[in-house]
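Section: Multi-chain targets

For targets with more than one molecule, the full set of components is provided together so that the structure can be written out for the assembly as a whole rather than chain by chain. Components appear in the order listed by the source. The example entry contains two components.
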Amino acid sequence: MRDEVNRTDILERAALDAIGLLTPEEVFDLESDLKQADPTLLDEVRQVRQGVQVFRETLPEVEPDPGLRTRVLAAVSQMIQQDLRESVQEARSQRMYLHSGNGRRDWLEPMIAGRVSPMWRVSALIAATIAIAFSWFYYQQASTITLLTQYVTEQETRELLSELERHLGNRPQNLIFSPRSEDIFFKSEDTALAGIARMWFDPEDGNGIIVAKNLPAKPDPYVLCLRPYDPTGKGGPTSIKPVAAMPSDGHTIAVSFKLSGDSANGASWCVLEPIDPNDEAVAGTANPMTEPILWITGNDADETQMPYRIVLNSVL
Amino acid sequence: MNEDWELMQRVSSGDPNAVNELYTRFGTLVYRMAYQLLRTKGDAEDAVQEIFVRLWQSAGRFDPERASLVTWVMLISRRHLVDMLRRKRVRPQMAGFDEAWVEPAGADGPAPEDGLLEEEWKLKLRERVSMLPGLQREVVARAYLGGKTLREISQELDRPIGTIKSALSRALANLRERMPSEEGTA
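Its structure, encoded as tokens over all components, is:
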């Protein structure tokens, strides 16, 4: 019964279609139904459609202008050419997509094709630049943490990072571009102490942080001093500048520092020795220079290129 | 049948010779259908161009199992012409079949010299459709020449839409039985 209703419905719709009374959507539905119709029903539909041929006899016997053929052929040809161009373009864009692999997103295609406004393109480029900068920043920070943890405990690492930020600033450009880290050799004349420390230092503004480990425990803190480079040896008594005191637990020492004065010639650095933070009287040019236990000269053998030295002195 | 299918495959592929052949066979038929509804030479010629583009676009979907080629061409043409009329919000106006044919809805109307031809085809149509029973005749005339929707016909004749649909379907079946042959060209 249901099938019969469907057949009748299809035949009625076919009749409406033959007269032109179906909308394009209804025509589409009818054609879809006909794809699933059995041969008998298709034949009936065919018969219904044939019915419209009766109207051929009723058509006015007018003849088209002979030039109409040319116009019709030109119109169809134009559409064929247009269709061909669109097909080629579609194939090209499809090929571009295939070449690009799965990584290319839908938004990238129109951007490359120039169908996105300049404002959006600039915004996208800025966003991409910021993303790269932050990626680099976090990479650098992760590297710094990794390097720090080679020398100090986790707790100290956090403190050092805080120091690093405090001295170098937390702006990305400071942390990304300015700090220069390098392993530095240190030695001591009064002890058999020698080793490698790591220094992060910004030569632009004189900020830095230094970390050494396996230093002998001392009741007094180590003092980081700075003196101009003197290839003859220790340098004059006026050439030492303590920049920070560094307590040591016998394993690691770490301190942040800021160089002042003219790092280009190193002449203006003041001298305070021996270092005793609690007794300023001992600080002065009359006191012998505390023997350095740590010379921070960089790992470059050509020390003449270094405008200064950082010297780690023990407090006597 | 196979030749028709092959022709439409060639048309679908953009073969200009095939399009030319299609026009040779059906150009006049399509033009007359367009003229019958649009009633001006210019509109009819424009419509013929559009219909042949549509025939090219639809050629790949031609299925000889569902309709002969001439029926299919008439079907596509009819769909397009009714679409045009709907877009223009114009329709050939026609009162009841037994009343006088009303003048066309085209803006500039038929050329004076076409007046006799027009009377001629109206008479032919009247003759053909007059073979049908009353309701079928009314429905076919209003739908085919009037371009009216089912709802409008239903309201005018005060009959349910289902009845109108059935009447139209039966009318076409009756008309087909009176057709000597389904094949041919215009």
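Residues 94-186 of chain B form a domain with the Arc Repressor Mutant, subunit A fold (CATH 1.10.10.10).
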